[in-house]
Structures are given as structure tokens and as C-alpha cells.
Amino acid sequence: MTTNSTTAFEEGDDTADHKSPSDFVPDEIDRPALVEDIRDRVAGDVRFDTYTRQLYATDASAYEITPIGVVFPKSTDDVATTVTYCADRGIPLLPRGGGTSLAGQAINEAVVLDLTRYMDDIVAINPEEQRARVEAGTVLGDLNEALSPHDLKFAPDPAAGDRSVIGGAIGNNSTGAHSLVYGKTDVYVEECEVVLADGTVVTLGEISVEKLRLSADFDGSLFEQVCAEIVRIIDEKGDEIRDRFPEMKRNVSGYNLDVLVKEAETGTVNLARLLAGSEGTLAIVTEAEVSLEPVPTTKAVSLLFYDSVLDAVTDVQYVLEHDPAAVELIDDVLLGLARETTEFEEAASIVPNEAEAGLLVEFYADDTDHGREQTAALLADRTPKTATELPPSDDQPINSETFAFTGLEAHVADERAMFWTLRKAGLPILLSRTSDEKHISFIEDCAVPPEHLPEFVERFQSLLTEKNRDADAAFYAHAGPGVLHVRPLINTKATADREDMVAIADAVTDMVVEFDGSVSGEHGDGRARTQWNRKLYGNDLWEVFRDLKSAFDPKWLLNPGNVCGDHAMTEHLRYDEGYEFDAGFEPSLNWKNKNGMQGMVELCHGCGGCRGSQETTGGVMCPTYRAAEEEITTTRGRANLLRQAMSGDLPDDPTDDEFAEDVLDLCIGCKGCKRDCPSGVDMAKLKTEVMHERHEKYGASLRDKIFANFDTLAMIGSALAPVSNLVQSLPAMGTVSQKTVGIASERSLPKFHRETLQDWFDECKPLVPKSEAERKVVLFADTYTNYSHPEVGKAAVRVLEAAGVHVDIATETDSGRPALSKGFVDSARETVKRDVKELEPRVRDGWDIVVAEPSDAVMFQSDALDVCSGDEVEAVAANAYGLCEYLDTFRLDENVDWNTPVESLVYHGHCHQKAEKKDHHAVGVLRRAGYTVDPLDSGCCGMAGTFGYEAEHYSLSKAIGKILFDQIDESDAEVVTAPGTSCRTQLADSRIQPVSSNSSLAGTSLDRDEPPTPIELLAYALPR
Ligand SMILES: Cc1cc2nc3c(=O)[nH]c(=O)nc-3n(C[C@H](O)[C@H](O)[C@H](O)COP(=O)(O)OP(=O)(O)OC[C@H]3O[C@@H](n4cnc5c(N)ncnc54)[C@H](O)[C@@H]3O)c2cc1C
Ligand code: SF4
Ligand code: SF4
Q1: In the structure, what pLDDT confidence band is assigned to residue 992 with cuts at 50, 70 and 90?
Q2: Phi-psi category of 846—alpha, beta or left, where left has phi over 0 and alpha has psi -120 to 50?
Q3: Which has fewest Cβ within 10 Å: 131, 228, 974, 991?
Q4: Which atom of ligand 1 is nearest to the CA of 177?
Q5: Best of 58, 75, 78, 101 to mutate for ligand 1, by most ligand atoms within 8 A of CB?
Q6: Is the pLDDT at 785 greater than 90, yes or no?
Q7: Per-residue DSSP letter, 917
């Protein structure tokens, strides 16, 4: 970590001194005694172990600092007790929510109080009064879900609201894209139960200034001292606060004193609102009463397109005259990234080629016609040549000068969502750089009054050009309220870049002051911006902030250093000149990204997306967190600890038993993060690297070897069937296999067929001769399909032939997946080479490869390239398909005369196919065949190959599975379909019997002359 001290504090010597500095010296702490003492006093959990501390060393910012320990309080009493205990000993404290802060305000050298685990109850909802009372650890998304039946919502909508909590929203005074309508969190905070810095519990809320004066006493209780200081600030500093605070709704820098002073003019203030934006430095909120807003009936969205970003931001002030709910800027960099990315192809296709910028303008509307009227008025005014769905009325603003060259409007949900996709499209790409240079947040959040945006943006761009940092520095913005998000590329490991970082922030602060704006319009001060508050507000107000802090927290123990403290922006950076990376081994997989494995290890930027809900994360990431709700079971937790282990912040070697078992073992390798993480962190691949190295160093367990070599075992099992199956079904077998190799006794083991799929295939001639077929397929009969579920392979043959395809079968059956998933990279590599040797000549000869089992299909398409290189493996990868993917890609299913025995299906796709974005094919095929399909937005089933078979993982596997079972329960469909063998095993082990037990659906007779049922192509359908 760097210890660079930076300019702001050196300039003003008096501020280099804390008024009441914390005398806490970390090395002096007797950690075991501290843990024991706190544990004796609280009902919640107390964790001061190294892993927990490191898990809480980061948030979504560029900073890292190890806390003293973490307490997970169960009640206000627990919070108060911990605060009292720590306050008596001068130990700093930090309340924390989802840890999604972008400026470093959720990390500190302190005892962290994580309120998200236990203090997340919605205490009461009062729809009549439009109020809700919640514990501080309640996730905003959960609150809004509970409010939805009442058509109400907590209005501030920070983009990370699916994992950020009320306490954090108050701490940062959060808001989102719709702040034009709703303002910030402070508007909605009516009352807070808080624990003050001495451990006393008080309720802060509305109070008349008269009563406040009566409570004011500089010699009284802490609360009375706070009242006295607030009264003094109102009386003595009111004018200066009015004068110096920017006239902006979007300012979260410093303390919320402008609101206090304004309220005081009415004779009543709300002290709870003073906590908004205080970043945990004044008091700890344990419960909050918040006011609510009605959910708008409907919305309408317009997109305006411009020749330049400057034109777009110039237009903002005119757009605002139309009273929109949101005005969002999309610049040329983001439009370019959207155009280049296949995933955003559809959204990008609506953007005219010549567009260099866009404004997304959203309206809240009473009904669709009202929405149409609003977009018509906007478009008629701002781009008069654009045809509108409704004619504009005459009394709307019309400004003679226009900037947009065309516009669009959307009134149905899907189209509106597509417009918003454009706004969000480029960011994940910016955030997935594995280079040392990263788009870090430090000046990403400045705000100026919207009328100054054009000049501000122009000068901002010049500043970045001058510093040679304009490349890829995307400008995206909540342009309506004047908030500009800009993240230039900075390599904080390099001294010159860190110096530039300070120089840029300094210059931006000057500009912001000149335009009467704020250095933080949204994300807060934290470690990145606290030092600039002095310049923003001037020495006098800086001192007022410090006086307020001292009144609330005389020993400066609550999240010290933030808002008006001594944080310097280049201190405690996650990556600095002292950062050293040494994995301790050479990677065994191919890493094609910049900086290879190291780049991937350093990729997580901490946004906490992997703590989000199924509905918001993309559905797959991260099932283990959803089941366990522990930070160590998030992708973020694993990524943080792995990086720390590989860079010396943790004493562990990542291949050690403890690290492997506690950190990586519970990652089920579902690849959900590879798909859903905005940065594309591929934890499954990282885990494989570490597991491989562990095997190299220490050897592998018998169970891992058995699972990795399942193909050989299955071949023997099949040769010995039915005896092998009989042995497996002996009553004592479960106990024996659990005791000897650690396979969960509750699990049913795969049964083997004497007649394998290959045997069956060899017996019957192809129905479609090669000479008559337009396409020819080598069906790869993977281990499970060949030996345990030949009916699946038979169905695949039947379907392919019904589609007019000539089919042959591969002689190899092992794709390398079992070995790779257990970390046997060399063995997987040998297997892939063998497969490629067989398959590549066929590909060269015009054959396609079809693989029935999704996970094995993905093995050929993607993972094989991690273990092997060269044209041959690439040719196989490019020509390998899952079964439905193949039918859908070439529309072969349209040739089939389907037999449809049921009407509706609920479809659970395999997580590996989801990770490769190949999961939608089956739904398309099934729908074309005539089924009503309910595709679940499901994640991994929890079986994850062999994970669910492992005794110590059985309960987590079932807990993850329950999420899927609940989704299935909510569906009305008649039949469950799941193409993955593991998924079907998980379902069948629970209560849903596989289709093979229902011959009417199974088609197990597999008469090849009969039309196939499309369920058969998922062979695998499961009756409810
Ligand atoms: C991808 C992404 C998008 C984002 N988009 C937005 C956005 O649109 N708008 C926006 O405003 N922000 C945004 N943020 C920033 C952040 O998500 C919000 O500020 C969020 O509300 C923080 O909530 P949290 O629960 O994660 O709080 P944390 O990060 O855990 O904490 C935030 C601050 O509040 C304090 N705090 C937490 N709990 C309490 C408590 N009980 N009592 C007192 N203080 C407490 C903490 O000490 C800390 O200083 C974004 C962040 C990310 C990563
Ligand atoms: S793993 Fe991805 S989603 Fe999770 S915190 Fe890191 S970057 Fe965000
Ligand atoms: S692979 Fe799956 S379980 Fe592992 S971290 Fe990624 S999303 Fe979570």
C-alpha cells in the first residue's frame, strides 16, 4: 500500500492535525481478547479471523484496507454494546451495508458492523401513510419487492439497489437515474433509530428548532451536545452555508448542512436527514422510517441522437423543459462499444450510423396516450423533422435552436428496455479490462448545473487530452441533474499515473468550484474525494464540518477520515507501487486476455453484483451466495481472497488446504460469473488453476481421481451391468461410499446400461443415408449419455434423423470435462487431444459435431481452448454444437413433424450453456414445435457435475437446488425439461421423477420411424 501523503492536507497545516484524533494504534490491539470480549457481550457473530478481515478490506472502490474485525449484530442492542465497548477503548467503528461504495467509504481500519446479515427485517409497511419502517441492513430491492403489491416504492434508485441497503443509501445519500423527480435519499428519511458514538441509542427525526434549543447543552449528554452544536451551526453559520453550498440537487459532498439550514427557516428540522451522506461518520443507523412514492402507472422513453457529445449536453437544458423523469447521456465511446458487441447488436441496430452521442429521455405517464403526448412534444421540439406517433399539442415548449438530428420513441416495455440497454451497454466492456490500466472511479462523479454542462464537458475533455488520458474515457451521465460519470484509464501501480490522478482531480475540483458544482453528485466522498472538500467548501465550512463531526463523535471513532478527515486519495490504493503479484506457480491453462491469469485475478472491481438477486444479476451468478449469504461465498469474496493470497496480503499460499477448503471449495464452477459479472470474472477457471497446482504439489484425493476418471469407471460399470447396478443398490452401499470416498449417502449413483449408446448405434443402420443428407453429424456420446442415459442419445439420433441429418457416432466418449472440473488439467488436455484427433478430420470433411450433454458441448466449444491450442482444436470448437443449438442455428427443427404429447413445459437450462449464451436455443425450438414454454431465469441446479455428490457439499447443493425447485413450483407448466444430466439428477433426487419412468412421455421405445416428440430432444423431460 502506498503511503503517499497528498496535497490537500499539506497546504493547510492546521488541518493536518485532527481536532480529536483517534488514538487507536492497530498494532497494539489484543485481537483474541477483543474477540472474546465482544463475543461475550453480543448475540450476533464476531469474526476477527484473517479471511473475514480481508473479505471486508475492499468495497467497489480502488482502495483496500484491512479492518480490525467484523461483527454481525443481531439487534440495536448488539450495535450499542459493540459501540460502547469500542468507544471505551478508542477503537474505530465502521457500519457497512452491501459494500458497494465507489469512493472507499465502506472500508476502514476499524471494527466493521455488517448489518446485512441479521438486521434486514422490514418492520412495518403503512400503505395509507406511504411509509415503511425497516432495519438498516434491508436491501433496497427487497423493500421494493415487498412494496410492489401496494404499488409503492422507495424512490431513490441507485443502480446497485439489488444489493445495497437502506443504511448504505442513507450513508451515501444515494439516488439514481430518476433524481429529477425524486431527489436523493434524504428527502425520504423521516426518522432513524441510531446508536451514537458513545453507545447511546436515540431516535432522530423531526424536531422544532425551539425544542432543539431546549435540548441543546454543551455540557450535557452526547445527544444534548449534538443538539447544541447543531443550533450553533444554524445560528452562526447559516448564511455561509447558504452562500457556499452549490445550488444543486445533486450534491453529496460534505455534510447535509444546506438541507438543515433550509429546514430551520421553516421552524422545524429533521435531524435524521443530517445523517444522509454522512458516510457512517456521525452515527450508526439501526432502523429507519422512510416515506414512499407511488409506482408510476407507465413510462415512455425517447432517444435523441446527436453529431457530438457537446451537442447532446447543450440540448439537456431544453430537454429539461419537458419535465422528464430521467435524462441520460450516452457518448461515442459507449455507442461504439455497443456497436462492436454481439450481445448488444439488437439495441445498437437502432442507432443511426452517424450518431456520436445520444440522450435517453424517460417520462412517467398516467397511461400510454399520456406517454405518447410527452414524447411527441419532446421530439417536435428537439428534433422537429422526426415523425411522432401522436401529433404534438400546440402548447408545448418549442425552442428555435435544435441540436439532435433524429429521435425515436418507445412505449412498450420491451422497447423501452432496449433503449435502456444502450445506456448500460458499454460499461461492462470498460470494466472488463485485465490490463494494469483500469477505469477507476475518482472523478467519476462530479456535477455542475446542467446549463454549464457544455463548457464543463469541453474543458474536461481538453484536460484529459492534455494529460493524454482521453482514449476510452467514456462520458456517461445522469445529464438531467448535471452529474457526469467519467472514468479515465489509470494504472495506480505506476507513480506517474497516481500523480496524474491527483492533478486531474485537483483541476476538476477547480472547474467544479468555478461552475458552482460538486465533486460528488452521487457516489460520496470516501477516500477518493474527502481531500477535495476543503477546496470545494473553503476553510471555514471545512471547519464547520469538523465541528459537527466532533460533536457527534468526540473521539473521531466512527469511520474516521471520511468527509472532513485526513484521507488522501492516493493512500491505501488496492494497487500501488508496493503491490507485487506472485501466484507461486505458472498457469497451466491458456489465458488469452491481457496480463493472463494475473489479469483475471485482479479483475474484480468489487461492485457486489454477485450479491444481487436472481432477477437482477442475469440469473446464474452467484448461486453459492444466494444459498449461504456469506461474503466468502460470493465471486467477489473469492476473487478478493485469491488476489490477496497471490499478492502477499494474506499469508496463505492459495494451494494450501485451508485456502482451498475455505475459499475455493464452495465455488461450484457454474461459470455464472463468467456470464453475469460485468467484468467477466471467471472464477471457475481460476479455481481450476489452483486445483491443478494443488494436485501437482500434494497429490489428489481418491474421490477426485474417481470423478475425474469417471469415463473409465462407467465403461467398467456398463460392462458389468446389471451386477454393478445391483451392488450399488445394496442398502449399505450409501454408507460405505460416504465413509470410504466421501460420496453423499443420500445421493443415488448413476446406473449403467449394458447396451451403451454406441452399441445400439452400431446395431442399426443410419436412417438418413449420407448421400441424401444436406448435413452430416458426428454425435459425441459423452460418458453419461453413452453408459448411463443412452435413451438421451437415442432421442438425439431420432431427432437429428427426423430433421434429415445423416448421423454417425464418435468412438471417444470422454470430453475431458470430468478431469477439468476436478482440476486435472494435464489429463483433460490429453483427452481433448485424443478427441480432436478423432473429430478434426471429420470437421475438415464437412461434418458437424453435436454433443447431447450441455456441459460436454461447452467443453468442446470453449474449455478445450483453455487446455489446447492450435487450428485443430479451434476447428472442432467452431463446429461443435449442443443438440438444440444445432437444430436452432440451422433451423433444422422446421423439417420435423413433431408429436406433442403435452402443451406446456417449464425449461431449466444448464448453467454452462448459459455462461456461453447458448441457452436460448432450446426454448426457440420447443416453441416452434408448438409448446408453451416457461423458460426459468434459473442458475445452477446445485449439482454442478459431481459437487452435489460430495458428502460435505450435499447440504449446500440442496440449498442451491431449492432456489430452482421454488421457481419450478411457481410455474403452471405441465412438464419440467432440463437438458443437463446433473440437473435432472438433482431434480429426481428431490421429488421430480425422470421421464424414463413415464413411458408415454419418454418415448423409451424409441421407434425411429415414429415422429419424435420435441421433449425427447431434451429427452429428459420430467413430469411434475
Ligand atoms: C455498479 C454500481 C452502481 C452504482 N450506482 C449508483 C447510483 O446509481 N446512485 C448512487 O447513489 N450510488 C450508486 N452506487 C454507489 C452505491 O451503490 C450506493 O451509494 C449504495 O446506496 C451504497 O449502499 P451499500 O449498502 O452498498 O452501502 P455501503 O457501501 O456498505 O456503505 C455506504 C456508506 O454508508 C455507511 N453506512 C452503511 N450502513 C450504515 C448504517 N447502518 N448507519 C450509518 N452509516 C451506514 C457506510 O459506513 C458507508 O460510509 C453504485 C455502485 C456500484 C458498484
Ligand atoms: S465478481 Fe464481478 S459482480 Fe462480483 S463484485 Fe467482482 S466485479 Fe462485481
Ligand atoms: S463459478 Fe459459479 S459458484 Fe463459482 S464464483 Fe462463479 S458464479 Fe459463483
Answers
A1: low
A2: left
A3: 991
A4: 8
A5: 101
A6: yes
A7: T
Contact criterion met (CB below 8 Å) for 673 and 681: yes
The answer to whether the CB of 160 is under 6 A from ligand 1 is yes
- pLDDT tens-digit series, residues 942-965: 999 899 999 999 989 999 998 888
Pair type for strands 131-135 and 880-882: unpaired
Is residue 829 within a helix (H) or strand (E), and if so which, with residue range?
helix 825-844
Best residue for ligand 3 mutational test, from 604, 673, 862, 956 (most atoms within 8 Å of Cβ): 673
Nearest to 819 by CA among 782, 870, 789: 782
Residue 526 CB neighbour total at 10 angstroms: 29
Instruction: Give the pLDDT of residue 930.
Output: 84
**Cα 881 to Cα 778, 857, 887, 972, distances in angstroms:** 10, 6, 9, 31
Q: Which of 96-100, 331-335, 411-415, 1014-1018 has the lowest mean pLDDT?
A: 1014-1018
Top pLDDT among 687 and 903 is at 687
More confident residue, 864 or 395: 864
Q: Which residue has the cell 451521465?
A: 477
Cα(104) to centroid of ligand 1, in Å?
10
Interatomic CA distance for residues 316 and 475, integer angstroms: 15
Please work out, in degrees rounded to the nearest 5, the angle formed at the alpha carbon of residue 376 by the alpha carbons of 370 and 378.
Answer: 105
Residue 23: the pLDDT is 41
Residue owning grid cell 422544532: 208
Nearest Cα residue to 685 out of 604, 600, 585: 600
What does the DSSP 8-state code read for residue 863? Answer: I
Going by alpha carbons, the residue nearest to atom 2 of ligand 2 is: 677
In a 3-state reduction of DSSP, which class is residue 1019? coil
State the pairing for strand pair 805-809/848-851.
Answer: unpaired
Residue 403 carries which DSSP code?
A: -
Alpha helix ranges (H) inside 286-396: 309-320, 332-340, 345-348, 368-382
Sheet of strand 111-114: strand arrangement: 45-47, 69-72, 111-114, 93-96
Beta strand pairing call for 406-410 and 69-72:
unpaired
CA of 687 to the centre of ligand 3 (A): 10
DSSP count for the chain of H helices, then E strands: 45, 30
**Distance from C-alpha of 729 to C-alpha of 482, rounded to nearest angstrom:** 69
Q: What is the pLDDT of residues 122-170, one digit of tens each?
A: 999 999 999 999 999 999 999 999 999 999 999 999 999 999 999 999 9
For 259, residues 6+ apart whose C-beta sits below 8 A from its C-beta are: 186, 273, 274, 276
Q: What percent of the chain has pLDDT over 70?
A: 94
CA pair distance 737, 319, nearest whole angstrom: 69
pLDDT band at 2 (very low <50, low <70, confident <90, very high): very low
> Any idea what the Cα angle at residue 923 is, between residues 922 and 929, rounded to 5°?
90
- Other CB atoms within a 10 A radius of the CB of residue 865 amount to 18
Strand partners, 408: 303
Q: Which residues form ligand 2's pocket by a CB distance below 6 Å? A: 604-610, 635-636, 639, 673, 677-679, 681
| Strands 975-977 vs 904-907: parallel, antiparallel or unpaired | parallel
Of 265, 120, 250, nearest in space to 187 by CA: 250
Cell reading at 428: 461492462
Please tell me the predicted confidence (pLDDT) of residue 339: 87
Residue among 71, 138, 172, 677 whose CB has most ligand 1 atoms within 8 A, to mutate: 172
- Kindly tell me if the per-residue pLDDT of 515 is higher than 50: yes
CA-to-CA distance for 177 and 170, rounded, in angstroms?
17
State in Å: Cα 669 to ligand 3 middle. Answer: 5
DSSP category for residue 774: S
Closest CA to 520 of 503, 544, 537, 540: 537
Pick from 504, 337, 345: nearest CA to 429: 337
Work out the pLDDT band at 976, boundaries 50, 70, 90: confident
